[in-house]
Amino acid sequence: MQRMSIAVSGTEFTDSDGVDGLIEMARSAQCDAVEFWYPKNAVRDGIDAALRKLHRAGLRLACVSTPSQLYGTGEADAVSLLHEAITVAARTGCDRVNTYFGHAPVVDDPGAVAAYAGALAPVLDYASAKEVVVVLENEFDAFGWDPAASDVSRRPAALAALFARVGSPWFGLNFDAANFLCAAVSPSSDALPLLLPWVRYAHVKDVRRAAAETPPAGWTRYTDHGRAYDTAPLGTGELDWPALIGSLAAAGYAGYLTLEPHCARSILLAETARAADYLRDVINGHMPPHRRPSHHN
């Protein structure tokens, strides 16, 4: 039976970094696949040179990820960017492109689902022609852009309604368990059981409720509607990765698990190596049941 594979994400780098750091990150994880952020990872060297570097390093693309949102403002730009990303994916043999939902001033899940499905339709026409799956990453209000909590992807039931409405094999979920936790949703009990039929890709990181005024050195704090979370070494936070990966495996998921530690560059390679070792142990069934860390609310 085919097993899940490990990849690393280019989201950890800036426009000026190119892909050199991403190649080092993949080597530290001892993996052969990367999530290529477009256009960010191509800004310094250009798309052709960036892809050549990755190819020469023996790396394939697990996913082409974009900062695109089809709901709210910027729909036209998002459609254009997604078309470009789908083209990049197709030329490299990659079959996934990542996107985000978007936000509005008010919560209107039925209206948002309808609007998103309409905006997505021409994108899926192109994606299906290129045999590329568009994956929607579930999000929380990481940057304070959605004070109304209008983003459908933070609510599993609304997200399931969107996938059911679109009903396309070329549209699925990028399951980010930590993002659900930061949106005050239990990924194990309230998100994954409902959304399993649509999982086509997965992001892997760990978080814990903030227990101090500042995050631990090297890690990142996110605040969602007054709840603060700190990123943490994989396996030390509140995510029950053995249970989550067990559920994915039981459902037949054999895609990528993409590491995005969201930590300082000074510790990125060491943390990536450690996280990849942990993840391999989980995939191979060698990890004991998860124990939730203690924290102060």
TrEMBL record:
Task: Please report the stretch or stretches of sequence annotated as the Xylose isomerase-like TIM barrel domain.
Answer: 24-280
Under SUPFAM superfamilies, the record lists: Xylose isomerase-like
Q: Which GO terms describe its molecular function?
A: isomerase activity
Query: In which domain of life is the source organism classified?
Result: Bacteria
- Tell me which UniProt keywords the record has, alphabetically: Isomerase
The identity of this protein, by name, is Sugar phosphate isomerase/epimerase
Q: Which organism is it from?
A: Actinomadura rubrisoli
